[in-house]
Amino acid sequence: MRLMLMLLFAFVSVSVCGQTAAPAAKKGNRETEFQMKEGSYLSFAQVNLSLGEIGFRVEVASEHKKNNARLEFRIDKPKGKIIGTLDIPYTGDSTYALKLTGNLRHAEGVHDLYLVARGGMPFSITAFGFIFNY
Predict the structure, then answer these.
(1) Which of 90, 93, 107, 128 is 20 to 30 A from 60 via CA?
(2) Rounded Cα gap, residues 23 and 37, in angstroms
């Protein structure tokens, strides 16, 4: 069953909105990153959130010490229901892996998933993945 789930997520389409340019190669240990600022979002089409307890792993980078940024996980549209949030910490020149797990509110069925940036300071998403809580 896990193989089927992995294959399902391998074919989920992803789109990026709110960026001025496509992701570019970066120096250091971040090869590709999505620059996120207030209101920009990543979207994943038709994610089945009913396949057991599901969570998300996001690798982020933030070079602003006074950072009040957060990442909202919303369903169906960028201003849809919030199923979870993550605060974005100051990471300096490296990336941190953050996990959103547990009982996600309103997370049942097939939905479009949106990762929406909030807060005054920009940050980067360097990786995103699905995790299962068994």
Answers:
(1) 107
(2) 14
d(CA 67, CA 89): 7
Q: Report yes or no: 33 and 124 within 8 Å, Cβ to Cβ.
A: yes
**Rounded to an integer, what distance in angstroms lies between the CA atom of residue 18 and that of residue 112?**
17
Per-residue pLDDT of the chain (134 residues; tens, 9 = 90+): 343 333 334 434 444 444 433 344 344 445 678 899 999 999 999 988 876 667 888 999 998 888 789 999 999 999 999 988 999 998 888 888 888 876 666 678 889 999 999 988 899 999 988 887 65
28 φψ region: left (φ > 0), alpha (ψ -120 to 50), beta (else): left
Q: Tell which phi-psi region holds residue 45, choosing left (phi > 0), alpha (psi between -120 and 50) or beta.
A: beta
Under DSSP, the state recorded for 126 is E
- Assess contact for 116 and 71: CB atoms under 8 A: yes
